[in-house]
Amino acid sequence: MSLLFPTLSTARLRLRRVTMQDADALFAIHSDVEWMKWYGVEPVTQRVQAEQLADMFSGWFVAGTGFRWALERRLDGRLIGTCGLFRWNKSWRNCVIGYELARDCRRQGYMREALETVIDYGFDRMQVHRIQAETHPDNHDSIQLAQRLGFRYEGVHREQAYWSGHYHDLNCYSLLEQDWRQSQRSRDD
What we know:
One of its GO terms (molecular function) is protein-N-terminal-alanine acetyltransferase activity. Pfam families: Acetyltransf_3. Residues 13-173 form the N-acetyltransferase domain. InterPro entries: Acyl_CoA_acyltransferase (IPR016181), GNAT_dom (IPR000182), N-acetyltransferase (IPR051531). By secondary structure, the chain is an alpha+beta fold. The chain has a single domain, classed as Gcn5-related N-acetyltransferase (GNAT) (Aminopeptidase). 34% of the residues lie in helices and 33% in strands. The chain has helices at residues 23-30, 33-36, 47-63, 110-124, 140-148, 177-188; strands spanning 8-9, 13-17, 67-73, 79-89, 94-101, 130-135, 152-163, 166-176. An eight-stranded mixed sheet has the order 1-2-3-4-5-6-8-7, with helices on both faces. Strand 4 and strand 5 (94-101) form a beta hairpin. It is globular.
């Protein structure tokens, strides 16, 4: 693996490494109580927690266990969210995908645009065979996004996660490399 973090580009976004300079933007996103109910952790309440989050995201690359990209909007340079591939098991050639977006930026196609590029990176550069997505059963926007990207429902991980004082089921979805390649060929035709 290269020692340089991969910067990726889309028509409207620059996907770059998360840094400490992103702490304020991360705090704004991760302190939104209503929006973070889907994220699987307690909302942050102090800026230092956002700094720890930036450090954790950066640490995945250093440890070789994944990547987390800051989604920087080209139009104004604003960090509007993050997405990444983590829990990378190189032997089994799989990983998990995760993402979050500022509430005012949703339903504008930003995350799909970013994830298509990140998924390509996972299959092409990380050489994974399978990417897994885990969503709360009530997070309909995330479920629809995963399905539009070609992820297939596999089942429920019962009470897999704990936040906000109780256990939560998570739906499990997966995307195999051959399914992604086929969907890309179909789209190009």
